[in-house]
Amino acid sequence: MKIKLESVRTVERREIELWVACSTKPNKTILLVGVFHGDELQGEYLIRKFLDSVKSEDLKNKILAIPCLNPDGKYYVTRQNANKVDLNRNFPTRNFEVLPKEDPYYGGYYPASEIETRFIIDVVEKYKPHFILTIHSPYRVVNYDGPALEEAKRISEITGYPVEEDIGYATPGSFGTYMGKEKNIPIITLELPDNDSYDKLWKDNSKVLNYLAFGY
Fold it and tell me: Which residues, in sequence order, are CB contacts of 13 under 8 Å at separation 6+?
């Protein structure tokens, strides 16, 4: 059984939901996040399917889930939110940069300017997850930040995706940098291939979610 804990509305009044599923005495708290970018929808599918498939009483860990952080971007099928901000460049990191507004990685005029960004920061501060998994596409890698190398290796074993600490380009203001490198929370960015069917993605990655729920 999953329960909606709380939610906020975007600037265009679409709902961002936080769900929880847990047993009576959970061990750790795991945060799952999908759809940072509105043109990367695979994470929402996997997270919702997982929440619908598990029985709370069987869980070892508490699962917090934001299936879709960027519902406005999902509506427009764009990387950015309704304000044309890349949410994964909008966090108050030491390396935050103000890029030209027409840049696809534009992170806003100032850090945490967006409702979506502030919501997920508040969730982390309130519920203090021990581990965070965000789901993106299309690189087919297990990217990690902070003290998450061992978890990255385990997830790589499950999926067959290679481990990459460096995604290959600068990511100023990213969620991984803020939570992993600056807040020291183990965080994995699971990059899924964008040419696989949802059925194949579920087959290849449902064991990752099971590992975090039952084995981590």
Answer: none
